[in-house]
Protein: M20 aminoacylase family protein
Amino acid sequence: MSLIESARPLQDKLTAIRRDIHAHPELAFEEHRTAELVARQLEALGIEVHRGIGGTGVVGVVRGGRGLRAIGLRADMDALPITERNEFAHKSTVQGCMHACGHDGHTTMLLGAAEALAARRDFDGTVYLIFQPAEEGEGGAPAMIADGLFERFPMEAVFGMHNWPGMEAGSFAIHSGPVMASADRFDIRFTGVGAHAAMPHLGVDPVVAGAAFVQAAQTLVSRVLDPIDAGVVSVTQFHAGEAYNVIPDRAELCGTVRTFSAAVRDRLEQGLRQVAEGIARSHGVEVDFQFRRGYPPTINTAAEAALCAEAARAVAGPERVFTDRRPSMGAEDFAYFLQEKPGAYVWIGNGPGEGGCMLHNPHYDFNDEVMPAGVAYWCELARRLLGNAK
Ligand SMILES: [Zn+2]
Ligand SMILES: [Zn+2]
Structure:
């Protein structure tokens, strides 16, 4: 029997759980119902459960064989502040909240893996099932780490999986090295001297300084970075003035910076500050520059990524496993786990092969058909990492 076929009997049960979670979405750090559902499902399987880690996080512990090695498998549980536009029976029952990133599916696939792992226990060691809160921007991963995740549950490596629309259902993509970008924010305020718009020489115009900044900031990626390195600088807000005939006294600009490495990230932060201060000096305005770091880049370690690819090939067949996909400039807080431990974060195709509804779209829905492949992947990965139970 193929690995996927052995997970197929769970399909109906997992579909019901997935749709129940989909219908009852909860925002970051508010996943009380979801966490309780997860904990009760694990307890019903006879799995040791730890609640309330990093807020609403849950960890399940499954042991096989007598081995002392341990790994972590992680799913995220939170939904997004989006009003769902789907009309199917399991649509969100909560106005303004929706599982538009498929975390309902990730959580359910890890529950399916819990059931299969607990039934078989054919691996030699411990699997920690990590159900984390608040992936969407709020940092549930660092909250669990700060709450002692890796001290309480010592593991040698940690693994994540995210569904990916636009990839054939049940196929896999594994990156060696960067897979998702860092996501940082900047806020800049140029303060000049307000004046009558007909008498600019009596003021100091922050709008012109702001415009110069927008242009100059675009030279950082094109002129300062090594052309082989990737980076994005996007100015996404520019607020100034309220009248046709008034030069305002301030201009406020905001934006985001994306990179795949710590060095490029440092360079762009430094470069933006330098440009903002230089523009301020040349225009005679004051500047306040704030740079706030968000999620770091998600960087898979090579050896673990190779093991993930082998497990995925065993599950989906070599022709449905891709190791040459481009990384995404989106961000992912699994990055924090990978700062602490080796491991890899892979994509599982949500289908269809091209087009279809993308993540964070009000019409998105996780594809229940991919769950057997996801469950089989987790089980195969655990067995390959820890070896067969002795
Ligand atoms: Zn998302
Ligand atoms: Zn997501």
